[in-house]
Amino acid sequence: MKCSEVAALIEELAPPRGSDEGFRFGDPEAEVAKVMVAWMATLEAITAAVEAGCNLLIVHEELHYPYSHINPGLENFLCWPVNRARLVALARAGITVYRAHGMLDRFCILDDFGKALNLPEPTVAEGYFRIYDVQPTPVVQVVERAKQRLKLPHLRVTGALDNMVQRIGLPWGGL
Q: Does 43 lie in the same domain as 83?
């Protein structure tokens, strides 16, 4: 199966593909050995793909800093060392990168994020947002649970940590 055929499957499951999605690097016509899915094409994710023998990396976030959708020319991003390092690592390994952002938000990420947080079934599930009713819980406990469930060392919070939470809302793109 070719990278382009894997992309076609994704695009069939979660249409339409946005202008900020699609192949970001590599050969769409390459035969797929193995696929790795990652949130971002960090150097760690690229290294893991190489070690696992993957030559197709499907990512949610953009390949370059700063966000390149508005003016995607590579000349604007090669001055960033992290961008050059990523491109060199991808080129050396022969990895093709495909970005699926809004498609996957609509298809599964929003619901899967609620599951990852071990939230109950949403009481409101409309369009691009979910609202969950939960037992009254202090913000600090909600934050600690989220950090544990998502294996995050830090989580930014505003407001009083002793406020009680009864509803949790997840908006599309608000992860």
A: yes
